[in-house]
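Homework help thread (please don't just give me the answer)

Our assignment gives two proteins as sequence + structure token strings and asks us to describe the second one. The first is just a warm-up. Here they are:
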Amino acid sequence: MQENTIPYGKHRFWEMIPGILIWTTFILAVGMSFFAPAIAVVFIIIFDLYWTLRVLYFLIFVVFAYRTYKKTMLVDWYAKLQKIKNWERVYHIVLLPTYKEDYQILYDALVSIRESNYRNDRFIIVMGGEEADEKNFINYAEKLKEEFKGQFAGFTTTVHPKGLKGEIPGKGSNLKWMEQETQKWIDKNKLPYKDLLVTAFDVDTVAHPQYFARFSYLFLTVKDGAHASYQPVVLYSNNVWKVQAPIRVSVFGTTFWLMSELMRSDRMWTFSSHSMTWQMLVDVGFHEPNLVSEDSRIFLQGFIRYNGDYRVEPLFLPVYMDAVEGVNYWDSMKALYKQQRRWAWGVEHLPYMLERFKGNKDISLWKRMKYVFNQIEGMYTWATAPMLIFLLGYLPFFVLQDTSTALLANSPFTLQYMMEIATAGVFVSASLSLWLLPKRPKDRSRWWWLIMILQWALLPVTFLVFGAFPAIDAQTRMMIGKYLGFNVTEKRKRG
């Protein structure tokens, strides 16, 4: 078992790099617009060309990912699994950390597991509450244990104590406590670690019926299945017909990003609800308890523990989750911003990677460079691209008076042409989002299909307000040492 934790503030220089990069870019963009506008125009054209090509590249992967997703949905994975000798030896531990969620949300999560196309006597359910909500959690847990009595191989609950040294309140610290308590249960029941698979779900997650069969099948058939995490397609569709348009556009954007990454799994990390092996969790010392982005860090823990011999296997099956939803419009927008900022706080992985990769020759130099570059480039463009495309990119044209050269005279038309090409991405996204929507509820008229298309006109706004701004916020906080705590995404009551 290894201890991976690197506390905030221990490596300030590495923490400052992302923020320095983005603010240097913004200062140069503004300064060049006033003092060297012609150079700024050339830079903007080159950047927009790069971004246009990147959008087209992204769309190709999304379309191919969608085709793979549809094909995967048509397969009876449980039937394929049953053809494998001794497949029954595999048990699934499902971790469900919760904090103040409504009873119906917890109930729905368990029903989706029970109704999976998989043997219920191979599920071990672990539901973990927090001491700060102990009374409410214990009440719900007792009702759920009675409701699902005898339906799983095991159903245990844990209560994570508050105020433990070296922790910050959040999902990661709760998961670590759950895993430590689960290990005691496993050892008591003498279950072999090599036969145990683990799925860490946000508690609002509803699994596809074939999820666990597909997971088991891949684990048993891919090369070295023990050295892999397993990533589904995350669809925020449980309440997608209820939430506001900016939220729908934002969460579909997240889904499309994840689908494109699944087609390039050699570079991806785990995100949100996903699966892994129990042996890996034990080997890395379980989830780290003092950070926000535990879902992606656990992949890095495995990658470093096994000296680069660790990867993500795409499942190409969905899990269905809740989009953020507040009590009113502005509360919902605030919740969306905080969620995006929490995701952007994945910038916290850079110091960890640089310290752990430094001098580790057991991981190839190419792999180390690739992961560091992808982390820096991804966080940098998340914060800067919308700003340069939709705001700062227009500044030199307002300043520049002399447009006598052909380049400067034609540059607005060049940019407009590239934007029109990039707009094709909006139409593709709108089309795919319609195909991914759940059945229209009875309280929504047919006109809502039109709304679901027109809402994509908000993409530039969401790209800025709920993309660049929270990313800038997160990276600036990291740069100045104002560290972010875990913000729980509120889940509204279900009817």
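The one we have to describe:
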Amino acid sequence: MANDREILREIWEGKIPVHFQLASDETDVEPEDFFLLIPRLSYFPLVTEKVRRHFLRVVSNELQDGEMWMDSNGTPLKWHYPIGVLFDLLVGSDACLPWRITVHFSKFPEEVLFRCPNKDIVEAHFMSSLKEADVLKHRGQVVSAMQKKDHNQLWLGLVNDKFDQFWAVNRRLMEPIPDQDGFKHIPVRCYAEDGTYQQKLVAPGTESGQKRTLQDLLEDFSTPVRKAVHPYKPLNSYPCKKAIKMTKSSIF
């Protein structure tokens, strides 16, 4: 882990320039658009409060209490997906930056999106994913041994985009526990371009004792047309355990 620290920091610091614009049918006044540089490894409800306040100044009174939601080229953005995953799925590596996103306060698409009235919902989702990953890796022993202050530090590190604050606790989830020879399984999700994803039990090694590569993992999921590991394109021959460790997906 110590040798990977600078790589982990560079990945953590990955940002996406975003151009937010208000839907044209939600105001009679043309507002100024809003621009932000947002972390790939976060969630939209954690980074868009300034966007919400900016556009609420010009929307009608009846929409002031409406839940804000966003779309990219007509596709509603799922708040429970990491921002970098959404960008890779909807825009890809050939994107023309900044990423243009449309903001809405009406006509919430309940058939597509879950409602997210506050950040507590995001925290519950994040911690649930964390516990699920720990069950796969350590049979749940690491998270169950953490105190409430450790959970809070992880969460606040994510909310405040503080690498050192987050990784001071998250490193425990990246290491084998003393009585366990490596990870039992590697928690990973394979996202399809339609927004769905698959999860499988992925062992870090083969039956013959060799380390599995990222190519092995992709073949398990039926190799997609376009390969992308959030937040960077993969090296197919890289050890699977090592490659997954270097991404936010490793704790999901």
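TA reply:
I won't write it for you, but here's a hint about the kind of observation we're looking for: The radius of gyration is 19 Å.
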